[in-house]
Amino acid sequence: MASQKERKISNLKKALDKALAIDEKKIAGQIKATGFLCKKCAQCCRAEFGDNTVMIFPSEINCICEKTGLSRDDFVIPTPSGDRDPEGNIHTFEWVLKKNGDCIFLENNQCEIYECRPYICRTYPFFLLDGKLEISECMGIGGNINDEESLILAVLLKQRYIIEIREAITLLERFNGFIPGGRGNVCVHDSEGEHWLVTNPDQAN
Ligand code: SF4
Prior knowledge:
Layout lengths: L3 H17 L3 H11 L20 E2 L1 H11 L3 H4 E3 L4 E2 L5 E4 L1 E3 L1 E2 L1 E2 L2 E2 L2 E2 L7 H5 L2 E4 L2 E4 L11 H28 L11 E5 L2 E5 L8
């Protein structure tokens, strides 16, 4: 009988097949019909306009490290979590960009890592949920967008969605539970395996 983990992976693989079959042109048509023009207001990067948390995948972290010379711990923290193993170490999944209220990469209303900003930033205010287009609050909604820009956004959305699912599959395949024993007090589980950190627990719970 399949374990819960095997069932989850099997369901994710079915979701991946559906994601790979998504018609970008149909999504592009929906974006065009909605309308969007970025007003460069940077509200999505700032704290005063709501949740500006940016989830980031290992591949995106590595890309930012390569382009900027920064190291991972300079700009990400573990996703906050209340999960603990029997020795009290915190376990969490994935990473989020550091904030000082606003995103740490926001400088004079501009993104300092614009060329390698995460997918979530490239595709805001759109995202795919169960393969369907969803829209977050944004001042740019309703703006004038052409066919080419709509298609670029749709392709990025599909890529982001596929990466999300692949990340979840690989994470689960490598996940062995909340087991103590690493060198640190916080363990981040992602598609690369376990990352043990010595960190201020307040940053992770
Ligand atoms: S990475 Fe750039 S675009 Fe994304 S939230 Fe930070 S400043 Fe904004």
